Amino acid sequence: MDKTIKIGEKIRGLRESRNLSVEEVAERSSLSVEQIKAIEGSNTLPSLAPLMKIARVLGVRLGTFLDDSNELGPVVCRKNEREESISFSNNDPKLSKHMEYFSLSKKKANRQMDPFIIDIFPSDNTDIVCSSHEGEEFIYVIEGQVEVNYGKDKIILNSGDSIYYDSIVAHHVHGADNKSAKILAVVYSPM
Questions:
Q1: Burial bucket for residue 106 (CB in 10 Å: 0-12, 13-18, 19+)
Q2: Are residues 145 and 183 in the same domain?
Q3: Residue ranges of the chain with pLDDT lower than 70?
Q4: Residue 65 main-chain phi, psi, to 5 deg
């Protein structure tokens, strides 16, 4: 099943179970009604920032949209188990797929962090659209070179480098020089 469809269905189901209208979710999340409808209808690949805002309004963690499991003990994710992924456009409406996220914790219930292996695809788009949301992010570069636009700063990270930042500051992560990269990212978003 297409993960974008599943995410839209989960959001709609959670919203309806809380007796919230699309307009109420839009107002509380500072997103437009059109964005909420598009995400619920799977007419677009959502970026991470709107998903985090919707999760906060619905009172769930971000991972609720990405998994179905409820394991309370430790969760092991084997390399060969990272087959299902979710793709985000990273707030860029011109890109159908900018990053592919492989969850490393999709079976863990009640988690406070969401760790991902992320494949960053090459892009020749020079229009960078930064996003911001509550929480914190940690990124470790596994392969390639990554450029992080953080506020007014541009930071280049090489393989083996890492960065930890407050995600409320406008930011954008992409492959440096429009090339591919692979990162480990841990995202924390308060509920």
A1: buried
A2: yes
A3: 1-5, 43-46, 66-73, 81-97, 124-126, 191
A4: -75, -20
Between CA 144 and CA 167 the distance in angstroms is 22
Q: Which of 65, 92, 111 lies at the terminal end of a domain, its last residue?
A: 65
Report, in angstroms and rounded to the nearest whole number, the Rg of the chain calculated over CA atoms: 16
Query: Do 15 and 106 belong together in one domain?
Result: no
What is the residue-wise DSSP string for 111-130?
-SEEEEEEEEPP--------
How many residues are recorded in the chain?
A: 191
> Which residues face 146 on adjacent strands?
157, 175
Q: Residue 106 has what pLDDT?
A: 75
DSSP bridge partners of 92: none
Are 102 and 166 within one domain? yes
Whole-number Cα distances in Å, 6 to 3, 26, 42, 184 = 5, 20, 8, 24
pLDDT at 60: 83
Domain presence at residue 108: yes
Residue 163: give the domain boundaries: 79-188
Can you state the angle between helices 33-40 and 22-29, rounded to 10 degrees? 120
Q: Are 104 and 29 found together in one domain?
A: no
